[in-house]
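Table S7 (text form). Paired inputs.
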Amino acid sequence: MDFCLNRREFIKRSGLLFLGLTSGVLLPNVSEAVRLDRKRYKVSRTNLLIGTVVSITVVDESKDKADDAIGAAFEEIKRLEGLFTRFDSKSPVGMLNNEGRLNGLPPELISMVRDSIKFNKLTHGAFDITVKPVLDLYEGAYKKGTLPKEEEISNAIMKIGTEYIQIEGTDIAFQKHGMAITLDGIAKGFIVDKASERISQLGVRNHLINAGGDIRVSGERKEGGPWKIAIQDPKKGKDYPDVISLSQGAIATSGNYEVFFDNERLFHHIVDPQSGKSPLELDSVSVVASSCKEADALSTALFVMGPSKAKGFEESYPCQYLLITRDGKVSSSKGWNKIKA
C-alpha cells in the first residue's frame, strides 16, 4: 500500500495544519468590492484560516459597513481557532489533552464539548470527539511509512468514549488514562456559525461564509433570490453531483478525498469509534441543517453510519442529506429535492 502526500501533510509542512494556525503566520488576504447597482455592493474577502480557505461574501447598501462586518467576522474566526486547536500544546484543548483535566476552561469550549456529547448520543455513538488516539495512531504510522497494526487499533479504541468525559462547571476531566479529544468534526461549523452571528449583529443580513465546504448563508445573493451552492464531486470531476438553494441555514460536507493517509483511502480522518477503522462505503456526505455546527457533526456521523443506517437515522431525526458512494452512486433524503436549485 502506497502512502501519499495529501492535503493535510502539505498544510502541515507549511505550518498551517487544520485548527493549528498561529498568530505569527502571514496569511494571504484577497479582497474584492463590486457595485451591483445603484443601491448595493458585493464585498468579498478570502483568507487562509482554520487550515482551509475561508471566503466571506456580503451584499449590502453600504460598502464600508460590509467591509467592517467581514473584518469583524475574520477576527472572530481567528479568536475561536486559538481555543479549539489540538495542535498547539498551549491552547485550551492542547493543555486538556496533555494533562487529562483542566479547570477554568473558556465557555465556548465547554459549550462545544457539551454539544459534542449531545451529538454522540443523538447519533448512537457515530459522532465521537474522543477518537483522537486512533487519529494519532494513523498519523504516526503515516510518518513511518507503515500501516497501523490491529493490536494498536484495539488498544487505541480502549481510550474512546464520551461517557468518560466529566464536566463540572468550567472544568473538564478525562476518566480514562490516555484519552484525548479532537474537535475537527464540529469546530469548523461552530466557528462559521459564530462568524455569521457577528456579521448579523453588525446589521448585515445578506452574506455567505464558506470555510472549505462548511457553508453558512443568510438573505440574498448578488442577483437576488437564495444563494446557490454546488456539491463538490469527490472525484474532482468538472460536473457537480447537485446544486441547492438556501436563503437561511447551512451545509457541510464530510469526505475521504481531502485528508487521507494512503492512496487507497483506507485510512482517512473520519474514524468509526466502534471499529477504530475508517468507513469505506462512502466518498462524501453533505448535510443541510439550521446551523453549520449541526451540519458539520451530522455529516461526519452519517459518513460513519453508511447508506443504510443513514436512511434509518432519517426516520428518527429529520435531516436533509446527499450521499455519494465509492462507486459513484448518489442517494438523498426524502426532502432533498425541495432544496434543489
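Next pair, protein 2 of 2.
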Amino acid sequence: MSQQPYAGPPDYRVVHRHGVFPEIGHDDAARFNFLAQMNRHLAACVLPGVKRAWDARVQPKLLAQLGRPPEHRREVREAMQADPIYQTWSALRRATMEQRQQAGRALVLGQAGELAARAGALNAGQASLKLDPNLKLPRYVEGVDHHLMPGSYHTELMADDVSAAANYDAGIFATTGGGLGRLNDGAGEALVAWLARNAPDFKPKRILDLGAGLGHNTLPVAKLFPDAQLTAVDVAAPMLRYGHARARSLGVNNVTFAQANVEALDFPDHSFDFIYSTMFLHETSFKALPQVLKEVKRLLAPGGISLHLEQPQYTESMDLYEQFIRDWDAFNNNEPFWTTMHELNLPKIAQALGHTPAELIESGAAAVLDPALFPAQAQAQATASSEDYGRKAAWYAFGTKAA
C-alpha cells in the first residue's frame, strides 16, 4: 500500500527566528506542535461532523419548529448550541485557544527581561520608533483581552516590555498551522500579490499601515517598495517596540513605528499615497470604524489607493450556516466587534463619507502560501488563473481610489 504524503502543519521548529524571537526549547516546540495538530484535527475531522449534524438533525428540527427556513445566523446558532457535537467542537477549539495563550506566556515571561534588552539594543537611539506615553487607549482596546490574550496587545508588565508582542509572534505560527508562512506575514504577502495583479504600475512613496501591531504585514510592503517611506501605526507600545526591533533585525530600515490612535492622526491632509490595514477593522468599534475611514479619506493623496483586508463579509450570498461558524470568534474568542463589522456595508459607509461609487474598491485577496513550507501548493497557486485566484480568495478586500 502506497503511503500518502504528509499534508499537515509544518514542524513548529521551522518558524523563522529573527533577532528578537523568543528562545524555543524542546517542550515549547512540542506544545505548539500539539496545538497546531489539534487545530487541524478539529477543522478537518470534527468540524465536518458539525455540518453533518446541522444537515441531518438540527436543521430539519428547526424547520419544523419555525415553519420556515431560518432567516438569520442567530437562529442557526441558537439551535446548534444544544447539539452535542457542536458543543464538543466549540469547547475543544476554545481550549486550544486558551492553551495557546498559556504556552506563549509561559515561553515569553521567563525571558521577558532578556527580550526587552534585545529589543532595546536594536531600538536604542532610533528616531524611527516614536512612542507616546500619554496616549489614551480607546475603550475597545483597553477593555478586551483580544484572542484570550491576558492584557491584550498593550499591557506592560515592566519597563520597555515586549512580552505581549513576543507571545503573539511566537504563537501565531501554531494557531495558523504555518499558513501565514515562516515569518507569519501571509496577509502582507496577500496584499503584495493583490497589488501585483490589480495595480502593477502603482509606485507609492509614502505608505501608512493602520493597526500594524508588530509589523508582520508591514515588512512585505516595505520590501516591495524599498524606496518608499512607511509609517506603521498602532496604540500598543509593546507591539511597536518589538516590531521596530524585529524589522531592524531583518534588515528593513524604511519603516517608522509610531504610537497613535488611528481615529485621529497627527498628519497633514493628503500625506500618503497608499494606506492599508490587515485584519484590523474588526478590532475597532461601530463608532470608531467610520472615523477611521474618514481619516483615511483625509490622508489619502490624489491618485492614491487605500485597501483593507478582512475575513469575508456576511452577505446575502453567504450561507447562514457558514455565517454562524465564522461568527464563532465573536462569542468565544474575545472579538466583540466581529459580528457587527462583518455585517456592515463598507461601501455604503464610504459613500456616506463622500466617496463616489467610481472611487470604491471591493474584491478578494487570495492567501499566499510560503513555498518553503508548502512547495507543491505554492507552485500551484503561483500558476493559478485569474478565475482560480478569485475563487480561492481568503480575504475580503475593500478600499478606495483617490481622484
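The radius of gyration is 21 Å.
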